[in-house]
Amino acid sequence: MGTRKEGPAARAGADAPRRPANDGEEKRAGITRREVVLGVGGTVALFGIGAASKAFAGEAVLRPPGGQDEDDLLSKCLRCQKCTEACPREAIVPVGLEGGFLSMRTPTMDYHAGDCDYCADENGERPLCVAACPTGALKLSAIATRRSTVIGEPLLVKDWCLAYRLTHCRDCYNACPLDAIELDDAERPHIVWDNCNGCGECEHACKSMTAGTPVPGATHRAIIIVPVGQGGEVNA
Ligand code: SF4
Ligand code: SF4
Ligand code: SF4
Fold it and tell me: How confident is the model at residue 23, as a pLDDT?
């Protein structure tokens, strides 16, 4: 069972429900009820509408700094890729077809390719992606800072973490620039939620699932950054 402390979602006032562990079971139960009410034909129609709307809207997307108001970003983004071109750490990529029609070619973060230091090294913590955006689809208030700009939050899958598998690793701890990872007495990482801004340096550094460190059953690195409300410390 996952645990989640007070984190960026709460700080931002966002509603951050945790997906129930038996989500799949609940969905199956829901389908059965609909089958009773609507009959098989109605169920097939519902599946069609659901699949179409999902393809249209897609899943929640991890946005660059200043792009966290999803409706605003979708209405203003020209899909011009200027933010992608501006990012000195190559952390911004366009959303592909899999992100749904609405989000296609809008910006998302790829923390395997790079991470976000808020342009600290390159531009004195003044985000170049925001400056490059011609429409304000990425925008920050004048008082926004690296710590106050929450891009996303970590999802730590403990069963896939090398430190939890008794293989010494503290790469995420070493990489975190904001003291948002602490180690317990067994040297296993935990998130310090109030310090994390979702910069992705931990995901970029994490060596689980990279060359030479496959983890049976794992589908991604042990620590990844996900949209606010989807993070946590969980078991597989
Ligand atoms: S703030 Fe800088 S490093 Fe971060 S995504 Fe924008 S351009 Fe890239
Ligand atoms: S390195 Fe990871 S834990 Fe640290 S601030 Fe960045 S996203 Fe958060
Ligand atoms: S870098 Fe990855 S594998 Fe290593 S301790 Fe951190 S989460 Fe675990």
Answer: 32
Distance 35 CA to ligand 1 centre (A): 48
Number of compact structural domains in the chain: 3
Q: Exposure of 230 by Cβ count < 10 A (0-12 exposed, 13-18 middle, 19+ buried)? A: buried
- Determine if ligand 2 sits within 6 Å of the CB of residue 206: no
Adjacent-strand bridge partners of 183:
189
- Distance, CA of 105 to CA of 39 (rounded, Å): 39
The pLDDT, as a whole number, for residue 55 is 64
- Whether residue 78 lies inside any domain: the answer is yes
Is any ligand 3 atom within 6 A of the Cβ of residue 181? no
Q: What is the mean pLDDT of residues 45-72?
A: 75
Domain interval for residue 40: 31-59
Q: If you measure from the C-alpha of residue 41 to the centroid of ligand 2, how many angstroms do you get, rounded to a whole number?
A: 48
Q: Which of 19, 42, 59 is the last residue of a domain?
A: 59
* CA 25 / ligand 2 centre spacing (Å): 33
pTM of the model: 0.80
Q: Is residue 73 part of a domain?
A: yes
73 and 44 inside one domain = no
Rounded to whole angstroms, how far apart are CA atoms 121 and 212?
31
What integer best gives the mean pLDDT of the chain?
Answer: 82
Same domain, 181 and 221: yes
Which stretch of 7-11, 56-60, 84-88, 171-175 has the lowest confidence by average pLDDT? 7-11
* Per-residue pLDDT reduced to its tens digit, 203-220: 999 999 987 888 889 999
> Do 146 and 177 meet the contact criterion of CB atoms below 8 Å apart?
no
Answer yes or no: is the C-beta of 175 below 6 A from any ligand 3 atom.
Answer: no
Q: Assess if residue 9 is contained within a domain.
A: no
